[in-house]
Amino acid sequence: MQKPRPYHHIPIQDSGEPLEEIPLDKFAVISPNTYQLAGATYDRYSPYYLRQGAIDRLLTAQNYLQTLQLGWKLAIFDAYRPVTVQQFMVDYTFRELIQTKGWQQEDITPEQTESLWEMVYRIWAVPNQNPATP
Q: pLDDT truncated to tens, each residue of the chain (134 aa)?
């Protein structure tokens, strides 16, 4: 299983701010995003939602970028990612690695399975249902 990462011990405190839609016209955005193209589904919100405070900071950064290079836009690939999407991408990546190696899932050994999960968790964090931790 995945080794703890340095940020795992940092508690998350909910700001209480509701999720708001990012003003997409201000940024470079690909829609649908990569995870949606892979088949992940977002229930209530799109991947382009954030807390208002985060949106305000993104807009500040975008405005500053304009002072440096007129016409450039920050690219947003995804912002809001529910645990269900994280789990989907973990499982999707695991299946893709099996396919890339030309293996059949029912035939892989426990050692191969462990090796594949190590590769998956180099890319993705373990999906976590605890809202107080990353």
A: 556 677 777 888 888 899 999 999 999 998 899 999 999 999 889 999 999 999 999 999 999 999 999 999 999 999 999 999 999 999 999 999 999 999 998 999 999 999 999 999 999 988 988 887 76
